[in-house]
Sequence to fold (415 residues):
Amino acid sequence: MKRLKDHELVAIFTDWTRRGHPYQFGPDDIDWDIWLLMGGRGCGKTRAGSEWIRNRVANGAARRIALVAPTYNDAREVMLEGESGLLNIGQPKERPVYIASRRRLEWPCGAIGQIFSAEEPDGLRGPQFDCAWADEFCAWSYPEDTLSNLRLCLRLGLMPQIMITTTPKPVEALRNLIAAPGVAVTRARTSDNRHNLAPGFIRAMETAYGGSRLGRQELNGELLLDTPGALWNRAQMEAVQIGHIPELSRIIVAVDPPVTSGPKADACGIIVAGLTADGLRAVILHDATVQGETPRGWARAVITACEGWDADYILAEVNQGGEMVQTILTSEDAGIPVRNVRAHISKTRRAQPVAVLYEQGRVKHAGRFAALEDELCRMGAPDPGCKSPDRADALVWAVTDLLLSRRGDPAVRQI
Fold:
């Protein structure tokens, strides 16, 4: 590198193809109208949008560009003047100049960009473009009106396209956008870009928000929506969280065993739950669910959970395996009692009384169990969108046993 000239060094350090993550280069298939990049904060959405525009300008594919943000100030502070904004990327001689009085960018090659605010959708009536970058779609005041006006402006060039960058939020406009034809979706997590973030940031954010709805949305870039008709919702999952394990009188491990084994088989739902000392509330302690294990493999996972939590007994559904389930479990450790339960009604009907207990505040979660919460928030829906709610079914058995059945209470224990 010492032998390189200054302009050669600049070219290397501004070469986006050497520095960008795969998710920042757009879909491989070019047959799309809108590229939607949903990602966590700090994953590089702004840089991806800026580089996409820069590349199209350099290739002559963009001559008239619309830049849309939640507000005019957001457009200037983030899309233009931010560290990853259009005024600060690429070789200096190729960068545009911003004319604040006209809210206009001018590139040396003659390309022109114009900024717009989603607070004023009608501002997009009249002008026309061949390319657009829209930032933080979920923060727009009028997302559907603004987007429809923007799409009607794209009537120049051979292939006018829009790139939308946003942290996802459970808004109807985003759901409709994802389902629309011609939309290609790319996802990214904050942790994917950890090497470009401050040391310790990922660790601090995971400690503070890891597994929570906020963390999954703002860090993992997940779109968490309530499923119509489901017995649980996301707000409930946030409300049941507790930061400690209370005094417990009983701990059990509930098991919903799979019928088959292998990579494509159903999971073996394994949930550890406890009963509070007053006998009024159930606490979900751990999700030890495994998938793809042989009968001996999932039985070993059950025993490990029992030993780790010093469980009083195992509660196993035996509809599919009958006595074989108990035989498998006791063969791994004959010292742990196994109680069998058999289902006579559907999973949804069994879950309904447990959902009522959640509404009454009688079930708490001593931790974040993302996969389990996802299943609960789809359970009971006409189209649940998942193969089998094995985790949720094991939870239903556990809570039913602890709160809805009549059993003698062992001595109170402190965990």
User: Anything to note?
Assistant: The radius of gyration is 27 Å.
